[in-house]
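User: Let's play a game. I give you a shape written as tokens, and you guess the letters that built it. Ready? Here's round one.
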């Protein structure tokens, strides 16, 4: 039995999740029952199993929950429990995910949260359950508690990229831009070539200018432009990077044209000067050209439809025309 190749559950599109969930019944029929597996693996005797086969159950479980097929999700969960036991940390986290998905109301979710607290009281190092607790706190709109829990998690595991990224999103939701930026900078210490994180940092810098004084806007926009440039340097064809470069350079060019004193020679960002108008124009033209190219081949490019629509809208309303 072959199953469509998987992307990470966090990166699956809705269509991918639906496609996977539709394969569950066939996959379960063609997979051996865990009850038939010999407890002690004996070469040439025991049924074949692999890490990938159990990872498949996990991915199918998540896909079924996303598409509302709770019954199939429960079957996948039962397979994992039969194989690894109900006390396996990863299985406990998946079981919690399933319970959250099928919970009927707020009180049911609060009960699940209490169960997480009980588990963590006995085993504070149970990372899957700890992360489920944080996710549930976010779902219950208890953002402050979720932030506190993430800070505690990162004190114990300072290289957890997923936790730093989630903490950045929570700080951003509260308008705490400098804290959100700091979290992504910590991610880049662990994964310096993560082009999506560079672009995300550029986005946060761009958003933060709405609350910045006029004197610091140039510095922040310049850093935003640099972050977007780095993202597309690491991943040529990265739509989000070109989109960000376009809007950040548009705004910086507009600021420079409206205010003659707002020049690249009069403001510096630590050791780096604001890019010259000529440089910004070249970057803007390149971003515009690449966005136009990407939208022209959108049907075979593999980008999300929402991204393509946003790129087309940006090109339509842009002040700067696409170079011919």
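Assistant: Ready! My guess for every position:
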């Amino acid at each position: 039995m072959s199953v469509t190749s998987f992307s990470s559950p966090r990166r699956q599109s809705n269509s991918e999740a639906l496609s996977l969930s539709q394969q569950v019944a066939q996959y379960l029929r063609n997979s051996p029952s865990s009850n038939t597996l010999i407890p002690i693996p004996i070469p040439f005797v025991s049924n074949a199993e692999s890490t990938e086969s159990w990872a498949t159950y996990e991915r199918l479980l998540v896909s079924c929950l996303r598409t509302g097929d709770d019954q199939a999700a429960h079957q996948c969960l039962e397979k994992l429990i039969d194989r690894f036991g109900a006390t396996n940390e990863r299985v406990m986290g998946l079981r919690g995910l399933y319970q959250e998905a099928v919970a009927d109301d707020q009180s049911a979710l609060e009960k699940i949260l209490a169960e997480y607290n009980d588990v963590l009281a006995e085993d504070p190092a149970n990372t899957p359950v700890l992360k489920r607790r944080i996710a549930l706190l976010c779902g219950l709109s208890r953002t402050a508690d979720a932030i506190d829990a993430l800070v505690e998690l990162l004190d114990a595991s300072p290289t957890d990229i997923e936790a730093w990224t989630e903490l950045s999103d929570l700080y951003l939701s509260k308008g705490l831009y400098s804290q959100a930026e700091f979290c992504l900078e910590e991610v880049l210490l662990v994964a310096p070539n993560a082009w999506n994180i560079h672009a995300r940092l550029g986005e946060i810098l761009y958003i933060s200018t709405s609350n910045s004084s006029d004197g610091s806007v140039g510095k922040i926009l310049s850093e935003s432009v640099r972050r977007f440039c780095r993202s597309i340097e690491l991943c040529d064809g990265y739509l989000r990077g070109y989109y960000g470069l376009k809007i950040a350079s548009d705004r910086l060019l507009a600021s420079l044209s409206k205010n003659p004193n707002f020049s690249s020679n009069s403001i510096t960002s630590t050791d780096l000067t604001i890019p010259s108008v000529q440089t910004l124009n070249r970057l803007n033209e390149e971003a515009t050209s690449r966005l136009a190219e990407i939208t022209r081949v959108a049907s075979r490019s593999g980008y999300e439809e929402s991204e393509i629509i946003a790129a087309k809208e940006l090109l339509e309303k842009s002040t700067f025309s696409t170079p011919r």
